[in-house]
Amino acid sequence: MIPQAYEFKRIASRFRQVSTFGFLFEGIETAPVYYFDDQESFDSDEVGALRAQIIAGPLRLPHPCVVFEVKDRAPERASLLVYARQFDDRVEAAFFFKDQRKRKWTDCLIHAVFSEPGLAEGYPNPKLGEDEISIYGEVATGIVWRALSILSQVAEVKPRTIMPALRRKYSKAGVRGWTWQQITIDPERLRAKSAPQGGTHASPRWHIRRGHWRQLADGRRVFVRQCQVGDPAQGGVVKDYIVKGTAA
Fold first, then answer.
1. Which one of 22, 93, 125, 216 has the minimum C-beta count within 10 Å?
2. In the beta sheet, which residues pair with residue 69?
3. Nearest residue to 157 (alpha-carbon basis) of 33, 63, 50
4. Cα angle 74, 80, 84; round to 5
5. Mean of per-residue pLDDT scores for the chain
6. Which of 1, 146, 166, 184 has its CA nearest to residue 68?
7. pLDDT beyond 90 at 191
8. Which pLDDT band, with edges at 50, 70 and 90, does 245 fall under?
9. Mean pLDDT for the stretch of residues 113-117
10. Model confidence over 30-67: pLDDT tens digits?
11. How far is it, in rounded angstroms, from Cα 68 to Cα 47?
12. What are the extents of the domains in the chain?
């Protein structure tokens, strides 16, 4: 068994050519993979309670770019994947998965930008409905916060190596990095680090994401409609925007 991320890495170059969101997957072929095979523990209250310890300051990834993969218990999805990249002033993440029924990968469903402590801005795929935006936005940001929370504590990290016999078909596609990290979560050990606060996927504070124009990699501009995102239980953020102009 190897993470599903390697299958996506193998087709990533073709994916970037046909996807509107292909630019979000630049460099994924060489990104380290952290694999979480226990979704129940990953979604546990013990992990959620650790979030407060990492949101006080800017997020820091374990590598300049990294794939977090969570094995999904639902039969229609193999795994939930987030490809995250570190920039000087932010972390950007793309959320996607393989649809087992259609036997194909989804496009990027949510493009999340973490630029302020404890706050994430989500930019959804225009094809998503309102319910999907809410669900996928919470899952995408939750995977990033939960994975980083787990790695900041005493999780068991086991390096796993891709067998040499499997490497050839991946290396031809530019894939590199034959060691991936399997993460074992011990809720009892995490419970000792922080008192449980409840909740499932860690979500950003409630805020209104303004409608805005977005410039795509191919030069097109699309309008992302305004919507409310985040969890009110985590607090709220209200921002005022002032538009200045010159007098006629």
1. 216
2. 35, 81
3. 33
4. 170
5. 81
6. 146
7. no
8. very low
9. 88
10. 999 999 999 988 998 888 888 877 777 788 999 999 99
11. 15
12. 5-235
pLDDT over 50 (residue 214): yes
DSSP per-residue letters across 105-157: E----EEEEEEETTEEEEEE-TT--HHHHHHHHHHHHHHHHHHHHHHTTT-EE
Query: Which residue from 69, 18, 100 is spatially nearest to 181, judged by alpha carbons?
Result: 69
Q: Say if residues 87 and 146 touch (Cβ distance below 8 Å).
A: no
Distance CA 173, CA 151 (A): 29
Q: What was the pLDDT predicted at 200?
A: 41
Q: Which two tokens stand for residue 157?
A: 């990290």
For residue 19, give the DSSP letter: -
The residue count of the chain comes to: 248
Greatest Cα pair distance in the chain: 71
Strand 33-36 to strand 179-184: parallel, antiparallel, or no bridges (unpaired)? parallel
Distance (Å, whole) CA 243 – CA 48: 38
- DSSP label of 210: P
| Torsions phi, psi for 207 (to 5 deg) | -160, 165
Bridge partners (DSSP) of residue 161 are 179
CA distances from 26 to 6, 65, 66, 125, 201 (A): 15, 10, 11, 18, 26
Distances (CA, A) of 31 to 5, 83, 162, 225, 244: 10, 8, 14, 32, 42
Q: How far apart are CA 23 and CA 49, in angstroms?
A: 34
